[in-house]
Write a structure and sequence with these properties.
The complex is a heterodimer of chains A (333) and B (266).
Chain A lengths: L1 H26 L7 H8 L5 H36 L11 H15 L10 H21 E2 L2 E2 L1 H24 L3 H12 L7 H20 L1 H7 L3 H6 L4 H23 L5 H13 L3 H25 L8 H21 L1
Chain B lengths: L4 E8 L7 E8 L4 E6 L5 H8 L7 E6 L2 E2 L5 H7 E4 L11 H7 L13 H13 L15 H14 L4 E5 L7 H18 L2 E5 L3 H7 L2 E6 L2 E6 L1 H4 L2 H8 L1 E7 L6 E8 L6
Helix pairs in contact in B: 3-5, 4-5, 5-6
Classes of the chains: A mainly alpha (333), B alpha/beta (266).
Keywords (chain B): ATP-binding, Cell membrane, Ion transport, Iron, Iron transport, Membrane, Nucleotide-binding, Transport
Membrane topology (chain B): Peripheral membrane protein
Subcellular location (chain B): Cell membrane
């Protein structure tokens, strides 16, 4: 029980840190706004110019970032638990790439529809991600069960292949579109607004709530296929359900913020170290960790060089890669 | 008969080898039954199929007259617990958490463990003599303690039937006997029907009421240990020459295999 209250404490602390980082992130940028004005602007009072910067530009972007972090981290956590492999992540498995190429194809063939089609893009991304999943699932389904080994190696192959095709496709674009697409491919929150936020919220709320209710079943899946079946889990069905949900999450995020890597990989690892492997704690913890990484990554990207903006995907990769190597190294020792 | 397990025309097998065909088997309830046979004879596959870890291509397994392949898998988990050989605990999980997982089939949706569930978890740990280890991480336990923790998890499922796939493998002789005595006690006090795959014939003889010998995916013979463990049968099943004797003080049939019998090896 003492252990449980410690874990709850960690979750509350994380939530507070996340809130604080959002406040600080709002404060950062080309024109810095004092924290006092930030708080004022939240309530719609203060200097009108600053209210616009904060309420129309920065806040939606930061909240979109937080949501993307939540979605990607959750997707990564589920993939890692379901496959029982600590390296699974929507980026590595090619789900992000599948979602990405679908969106890219949409942009290449219907560039004029981009502006009006915010609602359609997540659906495209979802179809792309799902196609990769269906392919991987059929590829890895051997002797009546899902082979995790084939699933992972197949995913890595898919990711590499699709990324190559995306590069070829994007070189055929005209210059301004190419810039937009390449920024989007590495993952960027540039230009996101309240509209994106509403959309993302709409797409994320169902799978997030679903997974939180599902946490005990995921705990059982973690015991291994045979033990889980023995305990009365319909493992093959749960595999399909959970993989579907993780694609849903990843695709929704990719459709808005592009291919931000590493969040899905690193957040569950950090969360495991903080609260252990029980999913009723692990999932919320990973969600907040992912949000935190994304919000801070974006803030750093805006702050480091003020004249140009470094996309959040690059910042996250640069910061996460060494940390992840450190984690792996420590684990194997 | 209650809790009787019946395999009817059962056929299963994965990939090449390890398959069996048209198996008919009745497991007596309230007894300890051991499956014996050479490596690759299909005894593990039979155990896994009879506990629905493997889907058969043909045939049925009935518990209380109901097919386990047509029942809700959670309902099966309330009647039958299975301890696979490959069971490994997730990193960092405590003994108590592992054992509490045994309550999963009885807990629906988001409900937390009830007082009754906690009592059962406590009882299962007590029965397996691992109460003092309850806060320890499973990774840090010795082989024998780990196996006890897993058995406690299966016990917490509160089923009348317990399947175990080679529960004594990788344990030294004292822990092998310790685990087998624990299972025997559970059978005697809780009337749990136990079905297990065993390698050691003398253990099978000492601890089971019923022995089923499997050869090349077929049930060769079944009966009491004294009926099964004979020179002739050991030559057929394991291709070994053996001396059979009766334990001087305990009265069990014992065997001392002493040579590989090339002639019967096909």
């Amino acid at each position: 029980m003492n252990k449980t209250s410690r874990k709850v404490g960690i979750l509350v602390a994380l939530a507070l840190i996340l809130l604080l980082s959002i406040m600080i992130a709002v404060n950062m940028g080309y024109s810095s706004v004092p924290l006092k004005d930030v708080i004022k602007a939240f309530f719609g009072i203060g200097i009108p110019g600053k209210i616009i910067i904060i309420r129309q530009l920065r806040l939606p972007r930061i909240l979109v970032g937080a949501l993307c972090g939540i979605g990607l981290a959750l997707s990564g956590s589920v993939l890692q638990s379901v496959t029982g492999n600590a390296l699974a992540d929507p980026g590595i498995l090619g789900i992000n790439a599948g979602a990405g190429i679908a969106v890219l194809l949409f942009l290449v063939f219907f560039p004029e529809m981009y502006a009006q089609s915010m609602e359609i893009i997540p659906i495209f991304a979802f179809i792309g991600g799902l196609s990769v999943l269906v392919f991987l699932y059929t590829f890895a389904y051997r002797n009546g069960k899902l082979s995790v080994k084939f699933f992972l190696t197949g995913g890595i192959g898919m990711a590499a292949g699709i990324n190559a095709v995306m590069l070829i496709l994007s070189t055929g674009l005209e210059n301004s579109n190419f810039q937009m697409v390449s920024r989007w491919l590495v993952g960027s929150l540039w230009g996101t607004d309240w509209h994106h936020l509403k959309l993302l919220l709409l797409y994320l709320i169902v799978p997030v709530l679903f997974l939180l209710c599902y946490s005990r079943k995921i705990d059982m899946m973690l015991m291994g296929r045979e033990v889980a079946v023995g305990l009365g889990v319909s493992v093959e069905r749960e595999y399909r359900v959970l993989l579907f949900v993780s694609v849903w999450l990843a695709a929704a995020c990719v459709s808005v913020c592009g291919g931000v890597g590493f969040i899905g990989l690193v957040s569950p690892h950090i969360a495991k170290r903080l609260v252990g492997i029980r999913h009723c704690f692990l999932l919320p913890c990973a969600m907040m960790t992912g949000a935190l990484i994304c919000v801070l990554g974006d803030a750093v990207g805006r702050m480091v060089i003020t004249s140009i903006e470094i996309p959040v995907g690059i910042v996250v990769s640069v910061l996460s890669a060494p940390y992840f190597l450190y984690l792996l190294n420590k684990k194997n020792m | 008969m209650k809790n009787e397990i019946v395999a009817n025309n059962l056929t299963a097998g994965y990939g090449q080898g390890f398959h069996f065909e048209n198996l008919n088997l009745i497991i007596p309830s309230g007894k300890i039954t051991s499956l014996i046979g050479a490596n690759g004879s299909g005894k593990s596959t039979i155990l896994k199929t009879m506990s629905r870890l493997i889907q058969p291509t043909h045939g049925e397994v009935y518990i209380d007259g109901k097919s386990i392949f047509h029942m809700n898998t959670r309902e099966v988990a309330k009647k039958l617990a299975i301890l696979p050989q490959s069971a490994t605990a997730p990193e960092g999980i405590s003994v108590e958490e592992l054992v509490a997982n045994g309550r999963f089939p009885h807990i629906s949706g988001m409900r937390r463990l009830s007082v009754e569930d906690r009592e059962i978890v406590h009882w299962a740990m007590e029965a397996c003599n691992i109460e003092e280890l309850s806060k320890r991480e499973v990774d840090t336990l010795s082989g024998g303690q780990k196996q006890r923790a897993w058995i406690a998890m299966a016990l917490a499922q509160k089923t009348d039937i317990l399947f175990l796939d080679e529960p004594t493998t990788y344990l030294d002789i004292s822990h092998q006997l310790d685990i087998l005595q624990l299972l025997q006690k559970l059978n005697q006090t809780q009337k749990v029907t136990i079905v297990m795959v065993l390698h050691d014939l003398n253990h099978a003889s000492m601890f089971s009421h019923h022995v089923v010998a499997i050869n090349n995916g077929e049930k060769l013979i079944e009966g009491t240990p004294a009926e099964i463990i004979t020179e002739e049968n050991l030559r057929c099943i394991f291709h070994v020459k053996a001396t059979i004797l009766v334990h001087p003080s305990l009265g069990y049939t014992m065997c001392i295999p002493y040579a590989f019998d090339r002639d019967t090896n096909d």
